[in-house]
Write a structure and sequence with these properties.
By secondary structure, the chain is mainly alpha-helical. The chain contains five helices and no strands. The longest helix is centred in the N-terminal third of the chain and has 31 residues. 6% of the residues are buried.
Length: 88
């Protein structure tokens, strides 16, 4: 009996990789959309995962920096003012 070709396995692996990539992109979009529309969610993210909002070696201030690159300024300052007002 001759060995089976690897082509079907390669196709399955490639489909799996593509599905994982699409899910990752959709997850990133949903996360950004929620962060973009909800200061409360940004506060939660800031408390649980500060590197997502603030500077870190790998992420480099992902949310705030990406908005600043897009020309949207002042979100970080408004968030900090709102969060400090809640603490008082």
């Amino acid at each position: 009996m001759p060995p089976k070709p690897l082509e079907p396995l390669a196709r399955k692996l490639m489909k799996g990789v593509m599905v994982v990539e699409v899910l990752g992109v959709l997850g990133a979009y949903v996360l950004f959309h929620r962060m973009n529309n909800s200061p409360e969610f940004r506060n939660t993210m800031s408390n649980k995962f500060p590197s997502v909002l603030e500077a870190s070696v790998l992420l480099s201030s992902v949310y705030y920096r990406s908005n600043e690159w897009a020309g949207v300024y002042g979100i970080r300052e408004r968030d900090q003012e709102a969060w400090s007002a809640k603490r008082d």
